[in-house]
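Quick one before lunch.
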Amino acid sequence: MSQTTTRPGICRICSAHCGVLATVTDGTLTKVTGDPDNPMFKGYTCAKGRALPDIHNNPRRLLHSQKRGADGSYTAIEAGRAMDEIATKLQSLIDTHGPRSVALYLGTNGLPYPASALMANAFIRAIESPMFFTANTIDQPGKQIALAAHGHWLGGDIDFHEADSWMLIGTNPLVSKAIGIPGQNPGQGLRAAISRGMQLIVIDPRRSQTAARAAIHIQPRPGEDVAIVAGMINLIIREKLCDRAFLDENVEGFDALAEAVSGFTPEYVAQRADIPVEQLVDAARLFATHGTRPGMVNAGTGANFAMHGNLLEYLCLCLTTICGRWQRAGERVVRPNTLMPAFTAKAQPHPPYEGWGYGERLRVRGLTDTVSGMPTAALADEILLPGEGQVKALICVGGNPMAAWPDQRKTLRALQSLDLLVTLDTEMSLTSRLADYVIAPMMQMETPAMTMGSELIKYYASGTGIPAAYAQYVPRLLDPPPGSDLTEEWQFFLGLAGRMGLDLWFVNFFGGGGGRFMESAPIVLNMNGDTDLTTEELFAQMCSTSRIPFDEVASHPHGKIFDVDAVVAPRDPDCTARLDVGNGYLLTELAQFMAEDFASARTESGFPFRLIPRRHNNFMNSSGTNLAALNRGRPYNPVYMHPDAMAALGLPDGSLVTVTSPHDSIPSVVEGDDSLRRDVVAMHHAFGGLPAEDDEVRERGSNVGRLVPTDVDYDPITGMPRQGNIPVRVTRAELTVAIAGHAVSQPEAFTPGPGS
Ligand SMILES: Nc1nc2c(c(=O)[nH]1)N[C@H]1C(S)=C(S)[C@@H](COP(=O)(O)OP(=O)(O)OC[C@H]3O[C@@H](n4cnc5c(=O)[nH]c(N)nc54)[C@H](O)[C@@H]3O)O[C@H]1N2
Ligand SMILES: Nc1nc2c(c(=O)[nH]1)N[C@H]1C(S)=C(S)[C@@H](COP(=O)(O)OP(=O)(O)OC[C@H]3O[C@@H](n4cnc5c(=O)[nH]c(N)nc54)[C@H](O)[C@@H]3O)O[C@H]1N2
Ligand code: SF4
Ligand SMILES: [Mo]
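Model of the iron/sulfur cluster complex:
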C-alpha cells in the first residue's frame, strides 16, 4: 500500500523562505503547496516553490558526483574519493603556488543554506587564501559601500506594513521578493498597504508588476536614477522639507550634500531622464510629506547595474536620513532577531567606517577587498593573468559563472585554463560542464532547514530580511533517492579540511559590511575532527545564542511569529556618532556624473536601444530554466521590445534577432512588450549555452553576460561592470550575420562614448 505524508517544509529557493506543505508519497516528493497554518505566509507560495517536486525529481538531477576524464566525458565518482583527490590536488597547488592560487566563489544558492556558506568561508580562511568571492560584487555591492560611507542607524528600519509611503527604484519586489516590500507574500503586503492608503512611488523604465500599482510611476531613461534622487534631495532641501531636528542631532555633512545636489534642478533632471518635470516635483513632495508615518526608499538591481551604484545607494541613504526616516526611540524594533541573538536597538548612529581600499589587492584594475567582498568581475582576469598570485583552482558553491558572470567568452577562457575547477551543483550546469569535479549535494527537502538565512539578510541592506520575530525550523522530510551518493554541502568542506589537516574555525558572523558592523558577538566553533557532526547538531550550535531558543522554534513546525517585546532604546547620553551625508569621495563622483556628456552619448549612432535587466517569476537566475513545469515550453529568454519599435524595425513577434553591444553580440528571439519605453529593450540574464551553442537559442536562450565587458565601464571600488543600461542594436538575425561577426572580431571599432 502506498504511503503518503504531508508535513511543513521551507522553500529556500529565494530569500523569502516561504513556509510550505510538502507531500511525500513512497519516498518521493510529490506535491508542494502553501501552508495555510503558517502565520507569516498564510498559504502563500510562488510557482517556483510549487515546482519543488519537479526540481527534486528532475531527470537531469545529479545523484552522484562526477569526474571529468581525459576525453572530456564524465563518470560517477564516490564523494569520499572525490574529496581525497581534490584535497590532494589543492594541497599540491598550495605547496607550489601558495594559498592565493585557490579561490572560492559562492553563488546565489550557497546563501540560503547558512551552513554551506559559512563552512566554505571557514575553509578558505583555514587555507589562508584571501580569494573568497561571492555573487554580491556582481549584484548590488553599492549597498554596503554606501552604508560604510553613511553609517548605520542602530534603531533599524521603518516597517513597510505601517508606512504611508514608500519609494522603489529599479526593483520589482512583487516578482523578486528581494527588497522594499517584504518578500513574505509581497502581493498581499502591497495590497494591504494600498488599501490602508499607502502611496507608492516606483522609478522604472518598464511598467513592472510593481510599477503598475504605484501612485506615481516615473518611467525614465535607464541609468538616470542618480540624477532623479539628487533632484529630489535638492527639491526637498530647497523647500525646507527636511527633518531639521533629526539632522541637528544625528547628521553631519548636510551643507556639502546641499551644495553637491544644487545643480540638479527639476528642469535639468527632467530633461536628462526624459520625464515630465511635474512628475519629479510631485514625487519629491509626496515622499517628503505624505501621511503621518512616511516611509523609506530602496533600490534594486535595475538601478544598481547602470553604473554609479555606490553613489545611487548613498543618495538613497541620504534621502532617507535628511527626511529622518528611521525607527525612533520608543518605537517597535521591526527586525528584532529570532534565530539570531537578541540585541539592543538604539536611536543613534553607528558611525561610518572604512569601506574599501584595504586588504587583499587584486593584480588588475587597482581593485581591492571591500566591505561588499572581493571584486568578482575581476576573478576571470586573476585566473588568466600569469605570474605570482595567479589563481589556479576554483571551487564554485551554488553559483554558475558561465551563465551569470560578465564577459562570457573571457569566463570560458579562464575556467578552461584552470588546473582545477570544482562545482557543487545539483545538475550539470553550464559551469559544471567545464569542471574537473562536480560534487552532487542533497536538495532542499533532504536536509533540515531553518529561516536563519532569511533573517540574516537584513544586514545586507535596509528593506530586506523578515519584518517580524518569525522563525521556522523543519527536519528532513525526505531521504535522498535510492542508490544515490549525495553529500551535504558543508560536509564537503569539513571533509577537505580533515584530509588536509586544517584547523577549521566556523564563525557565524552576525554583521553587515563584511563583519565590520556587528550587533552581537559571533558564534565561533572549532570543527576539528568532528566529522560525525550532523546538520541538526550544527544548526543547534549555530543557534546556541538565539533570541528564541532553538528547541522552542523547532516545537512550532508551521513556524511562529514570537511575541518579542523589543523597543528602540533612547540614544546613549555620551553618543557622539553621526551619520555622514557629505562623503567626499561619493559627492565628487556626483560632480563627475553631472559632467558626463549624456546628450552626445545618447545620440551616438549604432546603438539605438538600452538593454536593461529584469527577473522572471518562474526562474531563480539560471535555476529552473530547463524545467518544463517552469518554462512552460519556452526555455529561452526573449529580448522584450516595445511593439512600436518592433514595427519600425519590421521585426515580427517571435522572430530571431541579433543583439549587439559595443563588446559582443548574441542571438535572441524578439517579443513585444508595451510596458517598456520605446528606446529600451529588456532581457532575463543567466540563460544560454556555451558560445558554440548559439544556434540552440530557442532551446537554451542566450547569454546576456556576453554583451558585458569587465574592463571598459566598471566601478573603480567594486569592479562591478555595466550590467544594465547597455547600448545595443537589435537586428534581424539573417541579415546581420556579417555585421555581428564584424563586431565580434573587431570590438575596438565600437568604442562606447562617454557615459554610454
Ligand atoms: N547580465 C547580467 N548579469 C548578471 C545579472 C543580471 O541581471 N544581468 N545578475 C547578477 C546577479 S544579481 C547575481 S546574484 C548573479 C547570479 O550568479 P550565480 O549565483 O553565479 O548564478 P545562478 O544562476 O544563481 O547559479 C545558481 C547555481 O546553483 C545551482 N543550484 C540550484 N540548487 C542548488 C542547490 O541546492 N545546491 C547547490 N549547490 N547548487 C544549486 C544551479 O543549478 C546553478 O548552477 O548574476 C549576476 N549577473
Ligand atoms: N523570481 C525571481 N526572483 C528573484 C530572482 C530571479 O531570478 N527570479 N533573482 C534574485 C536575485 S539574485 C536578485 S539580486 C533579486 C533582484 O531583485 P530586483 O532588483 O527586484 O530585480 P528585478 O525583479 O529584475 O527588478 C529590477 C527592475 O529594475 C528595472 N530597471 C532596469 N534598469 C533600470 C534603470 O536603469 N533604472 C531603474 N530605475 N530601473 C531599472 C527593471 O525594469 C526591473 O523592473 O531578485 C532575486 N529574486
Ligand atoms: S517566493 Fe521564494 S521562497 Fe517562496 S515559494 Fe517562491 S521561490 Fe520559494
Ligand atoms: Mo542577485
